[in-house]
Amino acid sequence: MRGVKCFDEEIRRYGPYATIEAGLRVIEVKRITGSVNKCHELDRRFRTIRRRDRRERWRRSRLDRRSLEYYSIPPIDAYLLSGQYYVIDGNRRVAAAKQFGLEFMDAHVTECVPHGDKEAHRGAVSRRLFEQQTGLKNIRLDYTSGYADLLEEVREYTEGYDIAECARQWYSEVYLPRLGLIAKSELKSRYEHARKGDLYLMVTRFFKALMGGVPQDVGFDTVISSFLFARRLRSKRLFRRVPLRQVYTLLRGRVPRHLQQSKIW
Amino acid sequence: MAGFVRKVLFRLVLEDAIIREENAYRFYESAMDRVSAAEVRQLLKKLCAEELRHRLKLEELQRRGESEEMDFSRPQEIELLQEEQSWPELPDQASARDVLNLALIKEKQAARYYQLIAGRSALRTVRELFLLLAGEETGHIRWVEKMLA
User: Fold this and answer.
1) Is this model's pTM higher than 0.80 or not?
2) Which one of A166, B16, B23, B97 is least enclosed by Cβ atoms within 10 Å?
């Protein structure tokens, strides 16, 4: 079985890098894919490869299972490099999280940004700024330049009030419902592997460039539909295929005479 | 039965109006690539945005489904206007003035179309929307006329 990724080997490919403290945050367990110190000793699920150690680990995990019912797993320390987490301290906690099928866990994260990748550097800085100012740490974007746009949107939403307080409201009342509509739309099925956050930004940037912002007097599902049209990603429209004139002629013959003559019909 | 038929027809009329706005959007979009004068391009972009805004409003109305009070007793007018619906293809050598002249004709048609539809609706919100759209199309006519002058 293949082991976990080695941080040293991965970072060597990128060359010199800078680190940015990202602080305590909730991370996705499935994105923890490597280790800093023990990559040759662990399998993909962060269990030790040596058989003798495994027996010991099994005994411990039984204890861990019991303790997990009462306590949460303490935060691990990890590097974030190119969207993947590398464990500095807490390999066993990760193994337990993977074993028990936890989706998220806490981690003190340090982001590694290669010097050569200026865009990644700018993106990391703008994400850090976004998280510091809004306190929102769960927004994931593959195109990190989008954090600057989101910050601007949050600022506009707060209208001068305390940004950290209003950001949560924006997140629950604007951002999440809109992501829900994107998930149900044809946009998501056309760009299956894109993050919903990135698709959201794709839509809002288009309307910002053309109209100065997303129209607020219509629903976001309507906005998505117009975006699909403008980008020539035509969506299915039930009434599009029906020729109005022919239907009317057809219906006219069937409509009762009194209705034909009434003011409303 | 009559209620259902009214609803279907209402949606068809709205879809017809949406198609008009889409055609207008595509016309201005393609015209932008052929015109080099900055101020004309700016006007075309503005018109593009306006047509898309109209499309948004019409689709929102279609989604909300306010369809109870629509008068379809004079179908021949809809039929007449439907024939004028499509926008002609722009020739490769079209000048800015050609584009604007064409835009003027189509904007006038659109304004008349919305006025007609507004006259058909007894429901205040629907009537007001169509009157608003007619008013905005009249505004576009003024923009284009100003540019032509």
Assistant:
1) no
2) B97
